[in-house]
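Suppose you are handed a protein chain with no further information: no name, no annotation, nothing but its sequence. What can you learn? This example shows the usual starting point.
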Amino acid sequence: MGLTALCPGTFDPVTNGHLDIIQRASRCFDMVAVGVLENPGKEPLFSVEERVAMLKEALAEVPNVEIASFSGLLVDYARERGTTIVVKGLRAVTDFDYELQMAQMNSQMGGVETFFVSTSPQWSYLSSSLIKEVVRFGGDVSRLVPPVVLERLQEKLAGMRGD
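A reasonable first move is to predict its three-dimensional structure. Written in structure tokens, the prediction is:
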């Protein structure tokens, strides 16, 4: 089967920055398992099923990527998948501070190694939260998210406004 890496995230919604990290990981590993986190502590705009579906559509052309959802600890999900490698994108030093703590905890708890990939400069400012905020105020994010996400964002937010 080869070397599998796990790319976890909430992906609410997936951005071009997320896709960049996943696609780059897919060139370095035999398989990339994208794990969409079902986090009861957050109130996502999209259901976990919607997020998985958008990722599947956006990554349909990448043959060595699988997408599924999970809940609970990342180390438990990695163990279930039979992988000990996690790939995380870093946008800034603030990401590193948080992600380093998570990486060290995952290593201690489950022997999981984290590979950090710096975000490509053209996506370094992107976050799902920022995308949602811009769209709520009527801004254009068409160059920042895949077409399927733009369509779903417009549908979801129109429904929330009662359009």
